[in-house]
Amino acid sequence: MTCWIILFRGVGGDTLLPVQPLKAALVEEGFKSVVTYINTGNVVLTSNDAPKRIVKRVATIALEHFGFSKHIMIVSRAEWARLITQNPFPLAVSEPAKLHAYVLERAPDPGAVKALEQKAIGPEQFEIRGRVLYYYTPQGVSNARLHPKIEKTLKVAATARNWNTVLKLAHLAKQMAGDAK
């Protein structure tokens, strides 16, 4: 069994995805070791299925039970561990609410990355490594100018988690994984 971290895009505000009913629906559909974390669309589970099949099954459950039809990202526990170790802003971990990891649906095209670099003015910093965009906002995300331009400019679906959540999901995956890789 492989341990997976499932991230729902766009949960919060007007879009709710109740975690306890979601957990119950996932367990009912046969997923194992299901753990949810806060109401922003985070699930850790184990499965023998391929990632695309897991996403398809989870998307069907989310749509049928909760009317949720936005993007869902999936990252293995091993990939999540690499996401943490590859953080290009190690000094920013002391300000975990200002450091974010965006999981991208796919690696963006180089031209789109260049366009985002041209829009990155001010103290904000970002770096893309594979399917992850690391984003440091020393002035806080609520004052960040680049934040609302990231998905639009890269032309790829993404979902962001602050570093507190990144570390908590890693901890949950480690706790519940057991024999999962």
Automatic annotation (TrEMBL):
It holds the Pfam family DUF1697. It comes from the Bacteria. InterPro entries: DUF1697. PANTHER family: BLL4334 PROTEIN (PTHR36439), DUF1697 DOMAIN-CONTAINING PROTEIN (PTHR36439:SF1). This is Uncharacterized protein (DUF1697 family). It comes from Phyllobacterium bourgognense.
